[in-house]
Amino acid sequence: MKLVVVGLGQCGGRIADEFARMNSRAKSRRGMTIVTGCFAVNTDAADLSGLSAISNDHRHRILIGSRKTGGHGVGKINELGAEIAREDADKVIQTIRSSRNPQETDAFLLCASAAGGTGSGAISVMTQLLKERYVDKPVYNLIVLPFDHEEATEDRTVYNVATCLKSSYLVADAIFLIDNQRYIMKASSIKHNLARINAQIVQPFFNLLCAGEETKPRYIGAKILDGGDIIQTLSGWTTVGYGHTIPLGFLRRMFAPDRRHFRDKASETAKGVQALDEAISGLSVKCNPLDAKRALYLVSAPAREINVDLIKELGSYIKNMAPEATIRSGDYPRDKGDMNLTLILSEMSDVERVRNYFTKAINLIAELKKRQEGVVSTQRGIDITIKDIPSLL
Ligand SMILES: Nc1nc2c(ncn2[C@@H]2O[C@H](COP(=O)(O)OP(=O)(O)OP(=O)(O)O)[C@@H](O)[C@H]2O)c(=O)[nH]1
Ligand SMILES: [Mg+2]
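^ thats the input. predicted complex w/ magnesium ion below
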């Protein structure tokens, strides 16, 4: 499957940068293109300069709203982010359109954080406009939810997240929810942390996108998972997980390369289940798999480790976990390396974290209204007394 990736705002731009890096890896290691275009759009010129993998020119790093912001961002006001996106959308879409033949692309993926200003405001607006221009291509969103501490210190966080999520839900074909808090590693510094988090966010997409683009016969699975399967799976609130195991069998094969021990088969199935467990416990947002209406998994491993029992076992494990889901699956044999698994749960009827944001935002709006009324009446009070004071002007 081939994507055009557009990162909006700082967080979105950095994730898009990570997708550009992933595409270079796909090109150099596997000779294939999985990202046909990668763009960063921002109101902040400095953020755009901080990227490294996205081509360093104005056709790929697109500055918007510079007349309004002077190139310094929108300072968390996501309404302003939305307004600027609307005004400059033609410039962005024209640039995307002219850079590559859009027919080569299966879908768009727009990435942004929900808590900031530029990305949070722009993502739904850009999604809507892209959907109008490219009626036959799905437009997906990847939305990053803030760390817990950001919510505690900044009222605007809850408001931005709720308005961003609601607006995107109205227009995007599917929304990958990525909860920063679930990726946090307390020991490392923030910058290092964010880079690591971004790499982890993108990792599950590597094999997922490569599998359907594979042309070498020895890497074609018994069951190919291609772009059609992915498009059929993605709908509404979506979560993604990734699990992997170290290649344990390699020692045994080193000492007895031609003999396959009967235990290998059992241990391969166990490894697959272990990778699946890791993918479930590391899902990008906390959710209940029972609420998923669609699911997909792709297992990738050295060809000799993929067997019918493994696929059967994984399938029934997921069916038990998400009994209402239509499940699609595939295998992607490789020469060597670990066994890894990408899991997607989609069309979630409920995601607690999203629901909480909506509830908190409703409470916050009511609270702000009360506060505002208080302020207005005090001003009126001053205004009333001020008229009796002589002015020196
Ligand atoms: N995972 C991840 N989260 C990030 C990254 N950079 C910022 N964030 C999160 O994104 C939110 C802040 O949004 P930004 O993307 O910086 O905001 P913006 O879209 O550039 O908007 P303005 O700066 O207000 O114009 C916070 O919740 C951060 O924790 C990143 O590289 N990776
Ligand atoms: Mg910014």
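The longest strand covers residues 292-302.
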